[in-house]
Specification:
Elements lengths: L1 H5 L6 H19 L6 H8 L13 H21 L6 H18 L1 H7 L2 H6 L4 H16 L5 H24 L3 H4 L7 H11 L8
Length: about 200
């Protein structure tokens, strides 16, 4: 047993967690969430079969961590949009959302699966959503209020999510056709539809 243990790779605690997440993402792409195996991930990371459980108590907690990391990446991409004009900032965020979904379809599906809502209480999805709410607030005067901004952000997110899902789930021909609008055009249509008088005046 001692000889076997010496063949394993030695990691700093944080490094091992990140290595396990990286290997898990690769494995997820290959087999999907239902067939993801902690033992196989440990083999790829060159650690003992029990090592993943020091960081993730179950397969679901590992999947939730992958999903949360996806939202964190998306949030950072939203924050990195260096445009002050809110409508153009929103258009670029829309493009980023769809491009992220198309570049990482397995992780994107996982981000909206029940596993994250059950096991990830920190609200990484809500933090990403709040980036859209912030732009909606910049687009409309303060008098419109939080309910108005969140409703607009929900409409934007729903439309973009539908667009990304159509693109990923077997309808890529439709997505690339002339009849299917670009993410920026979807933003423009929703923003135009929300330009009405302040209901509080």
């Amino acid at each position: 047993m001692a000889k076997l243990e010496r063949t394993k790779t030695s990691y700093h605690k944080d490094d091992l967690r990140q290595t396990l997440l990286t290997e898990a993402r690769h494995h997820l792409i290959e087999v999907g969430p239902d067939h993801l195996s902690l033992r196989e991930i440990a083999r790829r990371a060159k650690v003992s079969p029990r090592a993943p459980y020091r960081h993730f108590e179950s397969k679901d907690s590992l999947l939730a961590a992958i999903a949360a990391e996806g939202f964190q990446t998306l949030t950072q991409q939203f924050r990195d949009v260096a445009v002050s004009e809110p409508n153009e900032r929103l258009r670029r965020m829309a493009r980023l959302y769809v491009e992220f979904a198309r570049a990482h379809p397995a992780v994107f599906r996982l981000m909206f699966s029940p596993v994250l809502q059950r096991l990830e209480p920190e609200g990484t999805a809500m933090i990403a959503f709040e980036q859209l709410v912030a732009v909606a607030r910049d687009l409309h005067p303060p008098g419109f209020g939080l309910r108005h901004w969140t409703t607009m952000a929900t409409a934007l997110w729903s439309g973009l999510h539908g667009m990304a899902t159509i693109s990923n789930d077997g309808a890529s021909t439709l997505y690339s056709s002339e009849v299917f609008i670009e993410p920026e055009a979807l933003v423009d249509a929703i923003v135009r539809g929300w330009r009405y008088e302040n209901p509080t005046t």
